[in-house]
Amino acid sequence: MNGINGSYEVKNGEHLSHRKRSLAVTEFIQGLLTKNDDETHVVFCQLDTLTKKNEEVIWRESARWVKYEEDVEENGKRWSKPHVASVTLHNVLELRTQMFVGALVLDADVTNIPQLADLIIEELSKNKTLTENTKSTIRSSLLARHVHPHLKRRRISADDSGGNIITQCRMPKTSSAADFAKMKARQHAEGKGETNGHIPESSPLVKLNKPFMKKIPEGAQVANVWVGEIDDLKEPITAFIRLDKPRVIGDLTEVPLPTRFIFLHLSPVGEPGHIFAIGRAMSNMMVDVIFSEVAYKAKSREDIMHGFDEFLDQTTVLPPGQWDPEIRLEPPTKVPSQEGRRRFESIAEEEHSDPTLVRTGRLFGGLIEDVKRKIPFYISDFKDGFHIQCLGAVLFMYLATLTPNITFGALLGQSTHHYMGTMECIVAVAFVNLIFALFGGQPLIIMGSTGPVLVLEIIIYTMCRDSDWDFLPFRCLVGLWSALFLLIIVAFDLSALVRYITRFTEESFACLIAIIFIVESFKKIFSIADTHPFNIHPEIPLDYTCFCVPNNQSSVYNMTTMPLTTNAFNSTTDAITNWTSVQREDCVNLGGVLEGSGCGTTVYHDNVFFLSFIIGVGTFGVAWALVNMKKSTFFPTVVRQTIGDFAVFISICTMVLLDALLGVPTPKLMVPNTIQPSRPDRGWFISPYSPHNPWWVWIATALPALVAVILIFMDQQITAVIINRKENKLKKGCGYHLDLTVTTFCLVVCSFFGLPWYVAATVRSMAHVNSLKMESECTAPGEKPVFLGCREQRLTPLIIAILNGCSVFMTSILQLVPMPVLYGVFLYMGVSALRGMQFMDRMMIMLMPAKYQPDHMYLRHVRIKRVHLFTFFQILCLGILWAIKAIKTISIVFPVMVLGTCFVRKGMERIFSKNELKWLDELMPEDKMMKQEDEGELIVDDDDMDDDEDDDGPIEFLQLKKYRKIGSVDNMPWNLKQDSKTKYRKGPDDESIV
User: Fold this and answer.
1) Is residue 221 within 8 Å of 44, Cβ to Cβ?
2) Is the pTM of this model over 0.70?
3) Which DSSP state fits 541?
């Protein structure tokens, strides 16, 4: 290998072409990274420049890298905004040449700076002829003091800072061996105090930048890059040292991290800024994920040179006339994965379904596997709940589950003649969520009431009322039959059919429920105008002249001009002495008569409705703004994170306080204050036997039970699929069979105790997951927080269940909460559930001109007309589902129609190609495809593609055998793009600036 011109030679001496050389480099790097087991770490890079201050030569920190570049600005007093570093190709090539001829020491055993200086000089002397004066100058420069911007004890004034470090980065020409000689005595004394590589306790430099440590990943090690200019040098010298062990050496670094790499580049006085550019080039390479691994695992100079060449292969060069290098590029929101540079492994199509959804062939085999999968995490499921974020989730979700439950209870009581009402709903939501939190396969699911369940309850009650049967015993039999059918589903692993539910069905279902939440929120707010109307014609005077008089004195009663505005009256009719104080609505009940010209005039409550509207919309607006504050630039990260976690609770408290201060009688939350059945003539335990029901009812109830099974299975499992999607990055696994088993148990108990049947509530479950999403706390300066997943635990649903059960004891507090506040919470839950849906993105794209459309991956691979056609079919299905759910007489078939969307999606395979469905939705499972995937067979969609290595013709898809190595991007078709389904590197049109 010739390291200077970069060509590679084979055994016969022939030079390889550029494409084959690139292929060889890539394969070499892949082999080095996969075969070498040496431990690697994240690298924090610090660039120090040799400068002169008050006749003293020092190393001044000029820039640093955690991931993006930060430069010292304003005479060394502040750090610049983090930005994407851009380096010139010439500087990288020059650096490569210097590394090829410079000193290289791998696994050096040094413990202090003097030993390091001696080692560097010794290695440099092997390849270069250095005079004793030059050696002395180099050694003195290496022993110079290191100054960092954060230090407070030794403040650097603007006068002696030497100007801007970045632009004035070379040493003054007066710097020579004589300047360094003045420092020898002090450096010698400091050298004695440096034992074991640590700074002496008496050193004023012992104060390190510990607050900055929170921005650096745990376990990071330091690469110190030193550059400078010295008059005595005749030619540049370069040294690269890798320590055998990470060590804290002297005052090299601003943070308390051990040093692992040291790069030194000294040159004669030359062009201003050139030496700093060389240091920036090396620093950028050291924080590159692949080159840093190469630096850790390299065994020879050849390995390092291969790392340089791989870095150059992946680098994009911008034309000089189309971009200003002085512009600091903002860090991107998303950075493409670099995994493709390590290895090129891919599969044809990723299965969208969970790998656990496979029939075991054994009775209850799936349930047993779910239990085995969840047991190892059971203790951590409770420990992980002890976090401040979980407290915010509990406070939010408690009110988010209590209010719809009370509303459902009121509707259920009216529909079943109070055989089941609000109290039964409170007990049911507490019990079911408690059991599911303790034993469910996916405890993040919130169990609750749904519209189809209410319709089924009404149908069963109407049937029993018309047939003169006992409702609760009949309902108990339906529940027992349903439990039996669900148990059969669990026994034969039929939950594996869930894998046929693709994104098309999931998002159609979730979008419908979210839109229902939004629409119902506004309907509830505007319904306040029915009980508290507002006057749309305030300019017209109103006549409120109306009085209450005794019935037997209505014609002769001496009426006053006092209108009915108060409610002060005695408890009995005989004791009433002032009839004018009786309210209009109480007059007739007390035996009085209303007389007056304004008795028919509507009493308006303008303030009540308008304040209710403001509070409802304000609750949503404040919560939405506070949640989005996480992405803002205001306040420290910890403050933004905490405010975001408690956003909904802060919003609720703000609007409750506003309502209390204004004193307007807005409608309040009403909760029962005693634990007793809603109907006095029923008990808590329900027997399935009733003398009023015929014997054949025990068999006939199996028919409505089949409808209930479809309803429960679809609601439960579709919600579970949505929660378990890979986008949520759940790590503890799911348990579809276990979830259905726990739901079956709860169904049996609720049937025997006359409680409503509860299943997974989609929007509430999604809101619960969203409230527990985690982002990286340790982010490099300029790096956007990375979504890590959700806080998977059982504590929040457990506490939510307990609080719901204790609501009857907190009526004095809950009655202070206005109902419009809770309607605002529902609006927030509905809108937040729509965020991130591909379906919503595609609907927005239908309204956008092509030049404004976002750069989604499916838009790169599917024609826009086909995208719109797919979206049209999904909108059509959504409309049909909406119509069925809105028409109460047929809403019972809603779960069946949701199941029908799976068949619609299957039929779309005749309209759309497999490749289009792969990008727009997900491919349904196919046994043949799964077999090919297991065998690692090669699948190529383009039948005309030949084996010519120089053929760069387009191909749509390529699946590679496992562990097959492929060359660099030069040897790959340009239309292979980086995405979540493949590991290929992007083509040149999609590459980011390096």
Assistant:
1) yes
2) no
3) -
